[in-house]
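Worked example 3. Consider a protein that binds ribulose-5-phosphate.
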Amino acid sequence: MADLDDLRKGNNFAIGVTSGEQRFHVKGAANLPWGMKDQLSRIFNPATGKAVMLAFDHGFIMGPTSGLERIDLNILPLVEYADCLMCTRGILQSVVPPTVNKPVCLRSDAGTSILTELNDNVIIDIEDAIRLNVSAMAVMLAIGDTSYEAKTIANLYKMVDLGSRYGIPVMGVTAVGKQMARDARYFGLASRICAENGAHIVKTYYCEGFDKVAAACPVPVVIAGGKKLPEKEALELCYKAIQDGAAGVDMGRNVFQSPSTQAMIQAVHAVVHTGITAEQGYELYQDLAK
Ligand code: 5RP
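Given these inputs, the predicted complex is written out as structure tokens:
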């Protein structure tokens, strides 16, 4: 029986003060359940609405590619500067200490390597994602690929069903086949298809006319960095993407293949979250890299 001796009567009900309307900082997520919003808020900073996701899932296709030979040495020193870690379950379990306490976007499909053209990916077991306490699950879509488009859309659809059941958002990853034009029409189409099928976040690439891609996508779009560029160009890419409506970056090679990885991720973080220009970001990179 609870102690009733000192049960104090409430007297501070602020009668007449309307309850504050709660707005949500993640695009398209206002109607989602609390658990989903909590996960999205762990990824997208509520103060800026933006996210720097550090992608190091490349090994699931590429093996020990440059900059990811030793994730313990190459990536762990960067983790503190990332808002979210994007990796596979194998690397999460074997290398990333749970004490880093960062939200994880788990690469949640598998089945392809650089040695084949195949994209016949299957999705992982949702129980794995739950056990690993991830904040989002990433699934690739091969839009325009006659062999695998339907299969990968079905993968996303299924993952969204499962994620919705357990409160885990899904990120649709737009893979670009060699035969596809890397333009706003293609990325706009692929991003919108991800969102229409329920993706809560879309990862795509920056391109000329990206403002239309971002505007027509009802959920946040983050950009992959793609192949390694000189640091100044990579920061320009981040800046232009943010100016054109991206909600952040999910960047890998342009960070972990930089000569100064810690300086680069901090410069990217500043461009994404503080609105500094690419030039200012590059100056910061140079200062930190000294
Ligand atoms: C690899 C991926 C990467 O996560 C994605 O391409 C982002 O990395 P990068 O900035 O190096 O392009 O999906 O399969």
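Take a moment to read the result before moving on. Strands lie at 51-55, 84-87, 104-107, 109-110, 122-123, 136-141, 170-174, 201-205, 221-224, 248-251. The chain has a mean pLDDT of 95.
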